[in-house]
UniProtKB/TrEMBL annotation:
Identification of the protein by name: Mitochondrial carrier domain-containing protein
PROSITE patterns in UniProt: SOLCAR
Lineage: Eukaryota, Fungi, Fungi incertae sedis, Mucoromycota, Mucoromycotina
Membrane disposition: Multi-pass membrane protein
TM segment ranges: none
Length: 301
């Protein structure tokens, strides 16, 4: 028999793998929007960008970075759900059956921190692999090794070579954790608000069904992402700052915000928000449904 913690880990890992695979094209498009500056805005609009990705890189391009993402998201999601359940039990008042709002938010925030610290280098690698074959510049004739059609997609390095390259060329272990602070600042409130919103919305429905859970999860993810999105943009900018063709160089979180607003306007903090809604709503919905379904199945064993 599996322990409760192991059930949470297994169900959480499955939830992450299923949900992220479903929405990977939207995830990659969001990253492309986030990391391109005004001088290299080759990706404009949702449908034109999807079309460009398809024409230049085919189905492989649409799913670029998904293998890394799944490898990352399984321990990320597993540790997040398991940590949330652990902190819920730790903070639960004696005799209570539910957490109050402050304790629920604290549990979610701590779960977010745990999951980020455990898997951050893989998140950086996922971002790098997601954009390396993208033609970020409008005029990219000088980037001759970039793919121009589905059949000639550039062969990219794998997960381990990318990690080793960052380690050797970008400052060792600190290089693998570049952007951890804005990521933690963004993820911890995001996870806290997601769990709080989901459980709060569920309390208003009777006779839970997968469809109702899906709707609650989609709404919860949209609410949380709207509030914390600028920090997600900062995370991506820091993660690609060491890449030669991006031109980004920031001295800390405050400098990054100041530089982006000064050179690109306030809108730069919300780049990719609309496609992110198209990704987050189904991803979080599917994640919660998969988690609860797997947990129910494991409890029935």
């Amino acid at each position: 028999m599996l322990s409760e913690t192991m059930k949470h880990l297994v169900a959480g890992g499955m939830a992450g793998a299923v949900s992220r695979t479903v929405v990977n094209p939207m995830e990659r498009m969001k990253i492309l929007f986030q990391i391109q500056g005004p001088e290299m805005a080759a990706y404009q609009g949702i449908w034109p960008t999807l079309k460009k990705m398809w024409q230049e890189e085919g189905v492989i391009g649409m799913m670029r970075g998904n293998g890394t993402n799944v490898i990352r998201i399984i321990p990320y999601s597993a540790s997040q759900f398991a940590a949330y359940e652990y902190f819920k039990g730790l903070l639960m008042k004696e005799g209570a059956s539910e957490l109050d709002t402050p304790r629920r938010l604290i549990s979610g925030a701590l779960a977010g921190i745990v999951s980020v610290v455990c898997t951050y280098p893989l998140d950086m690698v996922k971002t790098r692999l997601a954009i390396q074959s993208a033609s970020l510049h409008k005029n990219h004739s000088h980037l001759s090794n970039y793919a121009s059609k589905p059949g000639s997609v550039q062969k990219l390095p794998g997960i381990l070579p990318t990690i080793m390259s960052i380690y050797r060329n970008e400052g060792g272990v600190p290089g693998l954790y570049r952007g951890l602070v804005p990521t933690t600042l963004g993820v911890s409130p995001y996870v806290a608000i997601s769990f709080w919103s989901y459980e709060s919305l569920k309390s208003y429905i009777d006779n839970e069904t997968p469809t109702k859970r899906l709707v609650c999860g989609a709404l919860a993810g949209s609410i949380a992402q709207t509030i914390t999105y600028p920090l997600d943009v900062l995370r991506r900018r820091f993660q690609v700052a060491g890449m030669a063709n991006t031109g980004y160089k920031y001295n800390g979180t405050v400098d990054a915000i100041r530089t982006m607003v000064r050179s690109e306007g306030v809108r730069s903090l919300y780049k990719g928000l609309i496609p992110n809604y198209l990704k987050v709503a189904p991803a979080i919905g599917v994640s919660f449904v998969t988690y609860e379904t797997c947990k129910d199945l494991l409890n029935a064993l």
